[in-house]
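Hi everyone, sorry if this is the wrong subforum. Our group has a chain we'd like a structural model of before ordering constructs, and none of us has done structure prediction before. Sequence below.
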Amino acid sequence: MPIRGEGVYLRPSEMRDYLEWSSLRERSRTFLTPWEPIWPVDDLTRASFRYRVRRHAEEMARDEAYSFFVFREEDDVLLGGLSFGHVRRGVSQAATLGYWMGEPYAGKGYMTRAVRASCAYIFEKQGLHRIEAACLPTNEPSKRLLERVGFKHEGYARSYLNINGQWRDHLLFALLETDPIPPGKPV
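Answer:
Right subforum, don't worry. Here is the predicted structure as tokens:
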């Protein structure tokens, strides 16, 4: 059930991904640290990854979250990951988008293409109406990515998420199913 995009595909994580995932995360640690919560001490262990794979599968089965790894189509290399968490049904029909990219692949347009493809999937196959995203005001690449995919800036949340050990303000963005998702173009 891979989700196909321009030169990328997304699928849920599997135990066979552990070595590639842990290697990419470790090599990208310094690059990712300013944008993520503090990693638990055991974050890159096989046991922690096993728990993560199981939890993601359970969340998908319960329609609570949809988590995917992003791979380069030409050689099946793991590039990063993204998730649609906090799925809300009923009158809301919304989820929150989060993503990370391994340092060697950042700035090459892969995540833009992955977000574009996965948002289409969430709207068309999961029937959601709204996707929300937040990023640090200083994270220019993330702001540009969201705007390229068609997200609209909607607000500012003070002390919104605990990033790298500090409560940090975030810019809030959203994409509606009725918003046009711009077609792929150079990034």
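For your construct planning: The beta strands are 3-4, 8-11, 66-72, 78-88, 94-101, 130-135, 152-163, 166-176. The chain has five helices and eight strands.
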